[in-house]
């Protein structure tokens, strides 16, 4: 796809490039084209590619587009994800590992998939996953922004731009848990787990290239804060403006154009 189809405007916020599309479907297709292009470029260097993926309905169009992308040697891709609920069985439909497996990994078959386990001892799992992340730099991170401005599960009360660890266990803010109900992942707030494992903000910001996918009117307030507010953990996504290679894809509804 030509990633200019449906493109309304390109803006900047500090170091971030913002691409605004007329429709969510065109936004997702354009994001997939850009991510796919960068994947091919890195894979053409005869090396493995290490990627981190977000698990959320906001990423659906991106993943559908990546499945359709051609000439990507997924057998040389090492795939990681950002977060997982503590105490939720990995086979549960709400599990983020299940989400990514169903929508992407089972369809493109990366050569290596490393999933966080919400059923393991939290401390041991944080240590295990941190070691996997330390094996080599992460090349590409595909992420979203939560309605409370979080990235991964770094909600405002637990976000730390200078976190000394790569993976940690966190208490989820109620606004974050309500978003899971609003997204249709759970039917009631009481069903949403209260704790989760998450990659920290330094772990995400260490990625060589960051691609943000933020569609829908429900994200407008958070997106405006992420682009306009002072950089602080009051809106963790504000830190994304400081990354040297960050492209954000959004639509008219989210941006408010």
TrEMBL record:
Any Pfam family the entry gives: Glucosamine_iso
Source taxonomy: Bacteria, Bacillati, Bacillota, Bacilli, Bacillales
CDD domains xref list: GlcN6P_deaminase
GO molecular function, a single term: glucosamine-6-phosphate deaminase activity
Location of the Glucosamine/galactosamine-6-phosphate isomerase domain: 27-242
GO terms under biological process: carbohydrate metabolic process; glucosamine catabolic process; N-acetylglucosamine catabolic process; N-acetylneuraminate catabolic process
Gene3D superfamilies to which the protein is assigned, alphabetical: 3.40.50.1360
Protein name: Glucosamine-6-phosphate deaminase
One GO cellular component term: cytoplasm
Tagged with keyword Electron transport: no
PANTHER family, per database record: GLUCOSAMINE-6-PHOSPHATE ISOMERASE, GLUCOSAMINE-6-PHOSPHATE ISOMERASE NAGB
InterPro entries: Glc/Gal-6P_isomerase, Glucosamine6P_isomerase, NagB/RpiA_transferase-like
Highest taxon above the source species: Bacteria
């Amino acid at each position: 796809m030509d990633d200019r189809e449906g493109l309304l405007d390109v803006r900047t916020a500090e170091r971030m490039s913002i691409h605004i599309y007329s429709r969510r479907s065109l936004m997702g297709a354009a994001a997939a084209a850009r991510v796919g292009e960068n994947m091919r470029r890195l894979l053409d260097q005869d090396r493995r590619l290490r990627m981190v993926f977000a698990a959320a309905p906001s990423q659906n169009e991106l993943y559908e587009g990546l499945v359709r992308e051609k000439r990507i040697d997924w057998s040389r891709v090492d795939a990681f994800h950002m977060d997982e609920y503590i105490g939720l069985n990995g086979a549960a439909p709400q599990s983020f590992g299940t989400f990514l497996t169903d929508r992407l990994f089972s369809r493109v078959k990366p050569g290596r998939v490393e999933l966080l386990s919400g059923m393991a001892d939290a401390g041991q799992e944080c240590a295990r996953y941190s070691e996997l992340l330390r094996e080599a730099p992460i090349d590409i991170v595909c992420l979203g922004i939560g309605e409370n401005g979080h990235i991964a599960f770094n909600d405002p009360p637990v976000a730390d731009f200078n976190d000394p660890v790569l993976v940690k266990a966190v208490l989820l803010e109620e606004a974050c848990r309500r978003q899971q109900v609003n997204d249709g992942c759970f039917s009631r707030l009481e069903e949403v787990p209260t704790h989760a494992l998450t990659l920290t903000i330094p772990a995400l910001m260490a990625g060589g290239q960051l691609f943000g996918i933020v569609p829908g009117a429900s994200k407008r307030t958070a997106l405006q804060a992420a682009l306009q507010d002072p950089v602080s953990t009051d809106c963790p996504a504000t830190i994304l403006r400081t990354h040297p290679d960050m492209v954000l894809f959004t639509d008219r509804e989210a941006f408010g154009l």
